[in-house]
Amino acid sequence: xxxxxxxxxxxxxxxxxxxxxxxxxxxxxxxxxxxxxxxxxxxxxxxxxxxxxxxxxxxxxxxxxxxxxxxxxxxxxxxxxxxxxxxxxxxxxxxxxxxxxxxxxxxxxxxxxxxxxxxxxxxxxxxxxxxxxxxxxxxxxxxxxxxxxxxxxxxxxxxxxxxxxxxxxxxxxxxxxxxxxxxxxxxxxxxxxxxxxxxxxxxxxxxxxxxxxxxxxxxxxxxxxxxxxxxxxxxxxxxxxxxxxxxxxxxxxxxxxxxxxxxxxxxxxxxxxxxxxxxxxxxxxxxxxxxxxxxxxxxxxxxxxxxxxxxxxxxxxxxxxxxxxxxxxxxxxxxxxxxxxxxxxxxxxxxxxxxxxxxxxxxxxxxxxxxxxxxxxxxxxxxxxxxxxxxxxxxxxxxxxxxx
Length: 404
What we know:
By secondary structure, the protein is α+β, with helices and mostly antiparallel strands. The protein has helices at 2-44, 50-73, 188-198, 229-250; strands at residues 76-88, 93-105, 110-123, 126-140, 150-161, 166-181, 202-206, 209-214, 217-220, 253-276, 280-287, 291-307, 310-321, 326-330, 336-340, 343-353, 358-369, 374-378, 384-388, 392-403. The strands form 4 sheets. Strands 1-2-3-4-5-6-10-12-13-16-17-20 form a 12-stranded antiparallel barrel. A 3-stranded antiparallel beta sheet has the order 7-8-9. A two-stranded antiparallel ribbon has the order 14-15.
């Protein structure tokens, strides 16, 4: 189990190098453009009119702002979270610890996320991991239309939930996300960012003349073509990314629908309290062989951000088998148990920032396994008894997070 978890972390580090390398390549291209303009300013200032010289200085300043934005996007961002609940007496003690780390890179056009979360219990000195998950995902927005409506993703995850009897579950797959962002309704911070972006002109070739364009008004910058078509395309791409990055980060509403296909490998167990002699009881445990399935998933998404520092998220995952919609466990021809083979994982949170780097979140997560692992065994009277795992589990917590 530990080897597989470490493998996922190692794979995350490899995945991380792909977007970082792409961003660094773009940063180098932007720096070359900035150096070229700086050389023009130093060699041609005496031949330029005051307005042309001013526009060239502005161009150099704007390109450097674009480069700084790219550098910010190529940086890794992290957040750690922690909560502790304890009860102790002279004879017994119970401590519940929730901890997690999140690392992300980029926002648009690609985003890499690594999340590690764990809830553990220490009861009378005995350590138990109740719920944990490791999730690695890579999202990419193809530049179709305005660039935000379609999103593709791939992911790897490891999950366990002792309440549901899931010792280990590994999932890997991918899919698409259909997005709607309220691009016309941004937070105050988003509106301020948009105003800054609009103050930066678009640079174009107008009738073979290099020009700075504000809305529909273009001002020539000299009589020569200062930048090549490829260099102008680089600047247009950066501006396009910057505008969509701002919408994705600061839209007040986001509605989305995720459709995915993935491979699932699961190892589980079940327990049940059995009565005997009509009075006494005991717990019966049973382990199950690992299962392998191909599933598809559906996830509606609602994100509401009334202001920059307060965010509500609702991520309900509905997971279904690709084939064999029902799972049947039989003891004989007349004794069997048939259930729909689907799984719900509903995640919701409300997060509020208290400082620039600290936040508090109220988190609720609901699990429902419609076909938990189960098996028929014989009781003391040789009658079949169905040993079945738990069907539902709830997780809720108040978590303090610190950004780094």
